[in-house]
């Protein structure tokens, strides 16, 4: 039976301790105990200790804005290159956009007046259909592109523009999206009145944003016929919505896939090297050697019609050496463990992008029903956090305030009333729809949630659903039709029931 493992002490027994222990063991013990106590006080955390294991670990104490100012542009350029050319990076970004935005995050007016709510919602729908300043899409398309820019480039800006519409009652407000490159990151200033400019963001003496300094044209334009305006222009902060994820106390964002960029690049390089190796091995099949040429290089030597030597590799090539009497075939090297190594790297990349491995790669061979649901639950919690703590307050709410203010200034909505919005993110697709619907029904019947809450979770407007149901019920009654889906007349078990409160119960009702 093996004895207990010997533990090497952190504080070593030195020569002075050994010498003192011969003369006075008690004093030596007290001295060594004091040295151990001092070592414990100085260390605190193992990760903060200094030694051979952490000799190459360089960590600076710079502020987040200082790090972003130095590396932000390079990170954006490299991440965009990966998304353009690497399928894994492109799929990871698409998965995040699909789940955070989906078909859109829809607002509903939330005032005590139902008539005013309907008026605001109708006006929003008409405006949202043509709010894009470039005229390409609607509000949901603008939101989708903004979230994609935040994930891929780290941040994006929405600028309020005011254009005259075709009709007098059309809202003048339009939304223009600008990439992070538009911000003049080289503009710094520290003024006597306490205001300052850092990376193109102007703040007052209390640190609140009051303006952005931005280039009207994208600095990366290379069209020779475009007259570039490379002088940054000051835009008021109330006319700009800045969307980015805050991971520290910072003023700008970084691409989401930054922790995975090195891993993606390494996998790309490995795949290229492996492909070249396989192609090279497949080109040369065999060489016919002579008795005196067994020790020569395997490179085939071929002479053309002019007697010139030509060295080349071709698929299925058999090279003949002079006086050839024996043939030798090349043997490709084995590639055991390649699949496991590659899958491990993809797991690392998925963790860096914060997406489930199966959703990023489409590989479900290592997942079962329970593990898939558990992984999706954690991913959906992250998505909901981004929706409610980043996208809605930093992008959707500012645009809603611009919309309400402009509608009130044009007399399309009553002035002096605060009109707030309730936002409805898209629903998550159910892995087991029957069980999920039964659970939702039990929650409503037990009073844990309300029917409007369950409808809103699915991305629909409860008022619209109720109005549509009432209209359909009137038409069905007029036509004398009764459907199993009508809870007024048919029970859950499919039995006829009555809505007359004085009638005795029937069926399972």
Topology:
Layout: H1 15-23, H2 25-43, H3 64-85, H4 87-100, E1 106-109, H5 114-128, H6 139-153, E2 155-162, E3 173-179, E4 189-190, E5 196-198, E6 201-203, E7 209-214, E8 233-236, E9 240-244, H7 261-283, E10 284-290, E11 302-303, E12 309-310, E13 317-320, E14 324-329, H8 338-353, H9 357-361, H10 369-409, E15 421-424, H11 433-446, H12 451-457, H13 462-478
Parallel strand pairs: 10-13
Antiparallel strand pairs: 1-15, 2-3, 2-9, 4-5, 5-6, 6-7, 7-8, 10-14, 11-12
Helix pairs in contact: 1-2, 3-4, 4-6, 7-8
InterPro entries: Phage_lambda_portal
Pfam family, one: Phage_portal_2
Protein name: Phage portal protein
Task: Describe this protein's structure.
The protein has 509 residues and is α+β, with helices and mostly antiparallel strands. The chain is built from 13 helices and 15 strands. The protein has helices spanning 15-23, 25-43, 64-85, 87-100, 114-128, 139-153, 261-283, 338-353, 357-361, 369-409, 433-446, 451-457, 462-478; strands at residues 106-109, 155-162, 173-179, 189-190, 196-198, 201-203, 209-214, 233-236, 240-244, 284-290, 302-303, 309-310, 317-320, 324-329, 421-424. It has a five-stranded antiparallel beta sheet, with no helix packed on it. Strands 3-2-9 form a three-stranded antiparallel beta sheet. A hairpin with a 5-residue loop joins strand 11 (302-303) and strand 12 (309-310). Helix 3 (64-85) crosses helix 4 (87-100). The longest helix has 41 residues, at 369-409. It starts with 14 loop residues before the first helix and ends in a 31-residue tail after the last helix. Mean pLDDT is 83; it is low at 291-296.
